[in-house]
Amino acid sequence: MFWALLLLLAWSVAGAACTRLCLAAVRAAAVQEQADEDAAAARRHDLTLYEAAFLSGGPGRVADLTMVSMARQRRLLLARTGWATVVDPRGRDEMERSVIGAIGPEGQSRIAPVRAAASAADAVRGLADRLVSAGLAVPDGARTTVAAGVRQVRVAAVVVLALGATALLVPATPDMPRDLVALWFALPLALTLSCLAVARVEVHPYARWASPAGQRLLGALARRTGGTGALGDDRTFLTSVAVRGIRAVGEPDLRAAFAHREPYGRD
Fold first, then answer.
1. DSSP string, the chain
2. Is the pTM of this model over 0.70?
3. Are strands 108-110 and 83-86 parallel, antiparallel or unpaired?
4. First and final CA of the chain: distance in angstroms?
5. CA 157 – CA 189 distance, rounded (Å)
6. C-alpha distances in angstroms, 5 versus 10, 52, 157?
7. How many angstroms separate the CA atoms of 68 and 49, rounded?
């Protein structure tokens, strides 16, 4: 009956992981439903460039946009070698002051650490909180909790497979052939795989920065911008950078400068 103990363990692991994922998805859905209600009053909200950057690519995108904006105004020099040099030390808003503070008193630093520090600054966290309160951004807890649940279910699937393989190594008995043992272990494995399949379809939106309401505003902004990121007027250019990221930059030197940056999360 050694295989039965392994089967019980497999069911325990699979059941606990799938239950955690389901509860996390339910809580995230409740949070999102409340956010959608709050967003009803924000349907006519005009996104600022920083808001659009956060909803499109998260904190890292906000830092990129801030540095590009300052570089366009000749208040920050971004060298193609990946270094940032302060030209005007007076920041015009909290985001710019965060970037200048991240560069440090020497006035020069590599872009990668500046981006990382500016992404974690209080100004960006405050922006995120305001967007979440307005129902335009997905709460961080909804993303991280569900993502952790998905990871646990994946681990559970591997554990069930390992336990099943171990059970099959035990010599078969006349009353319990190997085929039947494999069938019993296929049940908790099917549970974990089905949970992952449902999560892939239903839970995926929670991994995005923007809520459905925020995505609608971003879509409207992108249509107005027309997807141009070349040398047009500054507002159109920066809007394109906010929505599409550094890939919208058409200037070779500026693109080369950001080629040295380190990624922030998945943005």
1. -HHHHHHHHHHHHHHHHHHHHHHHHHHHHHHHHHHHHHHGGGTTPPPPHHHHHHHHH-HHHHHHHHHHHHHHTTSEEE-TTSEEEES----SSHHHHHHHHHH-TTSEEEHHHHHHHHHTSHHHHHHHHHHHHTTSB--HHHHHHHHHHHHHHHHHHHHHHHHHHHHHHSPPBTTB-HHHHHHHHHHHHHHHHHHHHHHHHHTGGGGSSB-HHHHHHHHHHHHHHTT--SSS-HHHHHHHHHHH-GGG---HHHHHHHTTPPP-TT-
2. no
3. antiparallel
4. 50
5. 6
6. 9, 54, 17
7. 12
Token code pair at residue 66: 């801030």
- Give the Å distances, CA to CA, from 219 to 30, 52, 97: 24, 10, 29
Q: Report which of 189, 193, 197 is spatially closest to residue 167, judged by C-alpha positions.
A: 189
Tokens matching residue 62: 């906000």
List per-block mean pLDDT (blocks of 10 residues) for the chain, which spans 267 residues. Answer: 86 92 76 57 74 94 96 93 94 96 95 94 94 83 72 93 89 76 92 87 62 83 62 77 88 84 49
Q: Is 226 left (phi over 0), alpha (psi -120 to 50) or beta?
A: left
